[in-house]
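Why should sequence recovery work at all? Because a backbone constrains its sequence more than one might expect. Tight turns favour small or flexible residues, buried strands favour hydrophobic ones, and helices have their own preferences. The token representation captures these environments compactly. In the example below, the structure is given first.
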């Protein structure tokens, strides 16, 4: 079974998330096409650019050593509270990315609080240390105080801080030490973020987000939290009302590979996947066993969040 790490990046807008993910992908040698090298590849959504906030999730992955690191994109704005919580649930740890000059921002605080409450292990990345007048030491202390205020547990408070410049493409475990790549960060992810739980049994996957393809229609995205999914498998779609059960079949399965998706012959527990062929699903529904459906608790989206979204 492929070794996995599932992470989400928490960052205030402009603190460098896109630049960092871009560099991670380059470092993972997944972005081999020299023609596109140097261009930003994550921020390709016009709405995002226009509004300056990430409102759509796009999962990407990086192969590093013998690990696959799934990077789950998170909305950067506090209005999207429900979305943040759902997305964070797929991650087994978070990178808290903070600008070494600006420090922590209110929106980061909101998302960090959610991540800590969900028990996620953080790694702190103090970015933009190349900037004149930056204050990485002060910002690191500020982050520690914030974690403490937000009731981080002992294990969470024992986080690692990585310093660097996403723009220049380097990260270091030591403040003041310049390196020439971002492998210290990738190693930190492998060492500090736990392997996703691998639970045997009948399949369970909470539908966490959806994508749309003009060819195959709506695609259900989520993390397999029990058992293994395979194409052609008969499954039950347990609706989030807790009552309605729809018998259906998985047509195709895909995993996130680099910047795109590839068909998968099986998706083990712990992996994040996209399912084609499930009709009429909604976010919060569960894909589960055909004969003995055991739905997962849907993740509540609180009313204020919903009203802010529409
Ligand atoms: P996002 O909104 O968090 O995705 O931020 P971006 O990755 O789009 O970066 C916002 C701006 O900060 C861009 O102009 C980047 O070039 C710049 N930036 C990102 N990382 C660094 C860094 O390490 N040092 C400096 N000086 N600028 C950076």
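From this structural description, the recovered sequence reads:
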């Amino acid at each position: 079974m492929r070794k996995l790490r599932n992470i989400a990046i928490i960052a205030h807008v402009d603190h460098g998330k896109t630049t960092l993910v871009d560099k991670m992908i380059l470092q993972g040698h997944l972005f081999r096409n020299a023609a596109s090298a140097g261009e930003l590849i994550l921020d390709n959504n016009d709405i995002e650019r226009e509004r300056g906030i990430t409102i759509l999730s796009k999962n990407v992955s990086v192969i590093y050593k013998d690990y696959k690191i799934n990077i789950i994109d998170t909305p950067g704005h506090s209005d999207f509270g429900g979305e943040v919580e759902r997305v964070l649930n797929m991650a087994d740890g978070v990178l808290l990315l903070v600008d070494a000059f600006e420090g922590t921002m209110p929106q980061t605080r909101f998302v960090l609080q959610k991540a800590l409450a969900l028990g996620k292990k953080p790694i702190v990345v103090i970015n933009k240390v190349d900037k004149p007048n930056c204050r990485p030491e002060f910002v690191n202390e500020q982050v520690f105080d914030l974690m403490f205020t937000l009731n981080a547990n002992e294990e969470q408070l024992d986080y690692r801080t990585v310093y660097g410049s996403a723009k220049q493409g380097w990260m270091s475990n030591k403040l003041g030490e310049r390196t020439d790549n971002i492998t210290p960060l990738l190693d930190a992810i492998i060492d500090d973020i736990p392997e996703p739980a691998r639970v045997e049994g009948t399949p369970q996957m909470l539908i966490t987000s959806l994508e749309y393809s003009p060819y195959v229609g709506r695609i259900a995205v989520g993390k397999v939290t029990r058992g293994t999914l395979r194409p052609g498998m008969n499954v039950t779609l347990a609706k989030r009302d807790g009552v309605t059960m729809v018998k259906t079949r998985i047509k195709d399965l895909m995993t996130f590979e680099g910047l795109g998706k590839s068909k998968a012959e099986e998706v083990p527990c712990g992996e994040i996947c996209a399912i084609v062929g499930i009709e009429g699903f909604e976010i919060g529904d569960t894909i589960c066993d055909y004969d003995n459906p055991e739905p997962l608790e849907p993740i509540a989206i609180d009313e204020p969040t919903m009203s802010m979204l529409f």
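A few observations help interpret the result. The two ends are 41 Å apart (CA to CA).
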